[in-house]
Amino acid sequence: MSSRPLPELPHEAVHLFHDDETGLRAVIAIHSTALGPAIGGCRVQRYASETAATQDALRLSEAMTWKNALAGLPFGGGKAVILWPEHGVADRTRLFEAFGRCVHSLGGRFVTAEDAGSGVADMQAAARSTSHVAGLPRRADGVGGDPSPWTARGVFAAMQAAVAERDDRALAGMTVGVQGLGHVGMALAALLHRTGARLLVADVDNGRVAEAVRRFDAEPVAADAIVTAPMDILAPCALGGAINPATVHKLQARLVCGAANNQLEHPGLAAELARRGILYAPDYLVNAGGIIAVCAEYGDGDLASVERAVEAIGPGLAALIRDAEAKGETPARLADHLARTRVADGWSRRRAA
Ligand code: NAI
Question: Would the CB of 236 count as within 6 Å of ligand 1?
Fold first, then answer.
């Protein structure tokens, strides 16, 4: 790894929005536009406070910078979060129309799409107020629509590649724990079931667990026990922080590979996992399938290029694992360095132009 020092990259901007009429409270964080307009999904969640929502937006937008840079996309990193009111909202469509106005006010510096808690209908509502939105209903050429199946495909490709690098067993027959059975987790569980993996599943929504048990012959596990249950592979597909100081020493999986953003509560936990012989596939590398599809939709890409780029996540991870081994580094640190180098080079090019 080059010893060239990389500059710290503070966030470029954080915007807070309030709309009394619809009850909208949102944060849009723009981490970097070094490689292009900031792009990132819109997370909808209950937060304890505006400070907690802002912290989430800051962390998630930074992760988008690294994700987009590693995937070779001509976009920077940003993220929106909507603070879901405790008593719900009177009109969800109007709330997202108001959110669209917030996005539009940034003049194209930020482009949004779905994330945990939002869906295609929400993006359609936002699109009434702004053109800086993707994840809209699928076009006739197959591009667009819910990006989650692409995210699941990318994670699945990464898992296959990591298993091929590390094990002489196949993914078929292995036990995979899927934490979170939402848009991505359920689609990933379907792919794993089809390939012959045995599934452990958990969600705080019992209906989703029941669906996975029925469709995939999966074994239900309590939501607070899935991370440390006996299994070969853990796929965190809920919210962030599955690997934290309380779980890192109890993990029984040999590979962590899932869709959730910010799976490590702090970056130092990657080294702790490596010390225990557990391979951690960097989240922002393996969960890039959705943003690859979103960028193609926003930038007029075609379906074949999306398929190629999403399938390339597997070989990309395999190369990173080999490179990290050769350099005595963790894949997470090496990915971080690569992404930061690309962004720093992006800034240098912009300054020189
Ligand atoms: P989603 O909102 O559809 O699903 C999340 C699921 O996790 C829900 O079923 C929820 O009930 C469950 N959950 C929440 N807390 C839990 C807990 N403590 N234990 C077990 N289950 C829990 O979200 P989606 O879209 O499936 O995204 C999942 C993760 O992947 C998020 O972290 C998201 O940021 C990330 N991601 C999603 C992408 C996409 O294309 N949708 C792209 C890249 C990352």
Answer: no
Residue 95 domain-assigned (yes or no) = yes
Provide the CATH number for the domain around residue 50. 3.40.50.10860
Distance of CA 176 to the CA centre of its chain: 19
Residue 240 alpha carbon to ligand 1 centre in Å: 9
Q: pLDDT for 123-170, tens place per residue?
A: 999 999 999 999 999 999 999 999 999 999 999 999 999 999 988 789
Q: What are phi and psi of 170, to 5 degrees?
A: -95, 165
Residue 237: CB within 6 Å of ligand 1?
yes
In a domain, 1, yes or no: no
Tell me the CATH number at 196. 3.40.50.720
How does pLDDT run across 221-249, given as a tens digit for each residue? 999 999 999 999 999 999 899 999 999 99
Band the pLDDT of 300: cuts 50, 70, 90. confident
CB distance 258 to ligand 1 below 6 Å:
no
Nearest CA to ligand 1 atom 29: 260
**Portion of the chain with pLDDT greater than 70, in percent:** 98
Q: Do 115 and 203 fall within a single domain? A: no
| CA angle at 297 for the pair 292 and 300, rounded to the nearest 5° | 110
Distance of CA 133 to the CA centre of its chain: 17
| Residue 113 in contact with ligand 1 by CB distance below 6 A | no
Which residue segment(s) compose the domain that 93 sits in?
A: 13-56+76-126
The per-residue pLDDT for range 41-81, each reduced to its tens digit, is: 999 999 999 999 999 999 999 999 999 999 999 999 999 99
Residues 25 and 102 placed together within one structural domain of the fold: yes
Q: Could you tell me how many residues make up the chain?
A: 353
Beta strands in 185-254 (DSSP E): 198-202, 219-220, 233-236
The closest residue, in CA terms, to atom 31 on ligand 1 is 260
How far, in Å, is the centroid of ligand 1 from the Cα of 76? 22
Structural domains counted in the chain: 2
Set 67, 79, 250, 327: catalytic member: 79
CA 351 – ligand 1 centroid, Å: 38
Strand partners, 81: 27, 43
Specify the 3-state DSSP secondary structure of 153.
helix
